[in-house]
Design goal:
The chain has 331 residues and is an alpha/beta fold. The chain has 10 helices and 12 strands. Strand 7, helix 7 and strand 8 form a beta-alpha-beta unit.
């Protein structure tokens, strides 16, 4: 377990309401390797944000962790995150795990300067030994994300571009020097040049600072060059998991293949881009058996009846598909 930082153990998350309960994440088990970049990929509604929110006890109401555990390994100390309360949880957040939320630019307070927002966060986490050391730390972080500290310190959020605000939020995530940073769609609404710039910075943070990163995105092509490991999610479950090279080279699961084939590319003609037919399932009425079977051209009778288990088919290569029940089938 020395190489594991986070372990999701049979996690199930339900949105419990008066008339019904909606299962957003089902029996999710996955280990996050220390010092690696792991990408969670899937269409909107696949459960990516919901499952990682359990790592911060930040599941949107009325969502609840109804089964399983999330463990964080702090040296020899195994922390059950779901058991943390009040002050323990406050200290754990941002100092051990931080998160750059989707549309995180909107989380900046429009009435405060950037400097004041950083200072307030550090102050309430007892992370200010002196103003001089705090300023030194802040200058270091802003230099890390290639921002002019003198200019940005005094700025309000509306005075910065989208790319600048995104880099501010990455610096924010690094403020208390956490072991793990979660980034939910970190380049949404940014132009392709800024996207590449942001991902280059994230790669540097991973390699030079040794930070473990979790990237959440619907675009499998965007993480092809930066992720070490990729978990493909659908309807709250892992469909396929492998290192990035293996996943793109072999792409065993029909859903994985569909995501890759639907990715636009300047090397593809419009005819070569094949969208996945149909729509993601409604979690209020999930299909029986494999949740992907209504959209799968390889669907068999057993797919409509039994949910396939997540099984190992190669070296750290896992798949949830009846086509590989005996590890011998191929698409």
């Amino acid at each position: 377990m020395n190489d594991i930082l986070v372990s999701f153990d049979n996690v199930t998350i339900d949105y419990v309401m008066k008339k019904q309960s909606l299962r957003a994440v089902r029996d999710f088990s996955l280990d996050i390797e220390k010092g690696k970049i792991t990408a969670f990929v899937g269409e909107s509604g696949s459960g990516k944000t919901t499952v990682v929110s359990a790592l911060l006890q930040a599941i949107s109401s009325p969502g609840k962790l109804t089964q399983g555990n999330v463990y964080f390994f702090d040296g020899d100390n195994k922390i059950d995150v779901s058991a943390l309360k009040n002050e323990q949880l406050r200290k754990f957040r941002w100092s051990k795990v931080s998160m750059v939320f989707q549309a995180s630019q909107s989380t900046l307070n429009p009435l405060m300067t950037i400097y004041d927002q950083f200072y307030e966060t550090a102050y309430y986490h007892d992370a200010i030994a002196s103003k001089e050391k705090f300023d030194e730390r802040l200058n270091y972080l802003f230099d890390l994300v290639k921002l002019d500290a003198k200019r940005v310190f005094k700025a309000y959020p509306h005075q910065m571009s989208g790319g600048m605000k995104q880099r501010v939020m990455i610096a924010f995530a690094l403020l208390l020097n956490p072991d793990l940073i979660i980034l939910d769609e970190p380049t949404t609404a940014l132009d392709v040049i800024t996207q590449k710039y942001i991902f280059n910075q994230l790669t540097d943070i991973n390699k030079n600072l040794g930070k473990t990163l979790i990237l959440l995105t619907h675009d499998i092509g965007i993480v092809a060059k930066v992720a070490d490991n990729i978990a493909v999610m659908y309807a709250g479950s892992v469909m396929e998991y492998a290192d990035a090279y293996t996943l793109f080279k072999e792409k065993k699961h029909p859903y994985t293949r569909g995501l890759i084939e639907a990715t636009p590319s300047i090397l593809k003609s419009p005819e070569e881009i094949q969208p996945i037919e149909g729509n993601p399932p409604d979690i209020r009425n999930l299909p029986s058996g494999c949740p992907f079977h209504p959209r799968c051209k390889y669907c068999m009778d057993i797919c409509t009846e039994q949910r396939p288990p997540l099984q190992k088919i190669g070296d750290e290569h896992y798949i949830s598909c009846h086509l590989y029940a005996n590890n011998t089938q191929k698409l």
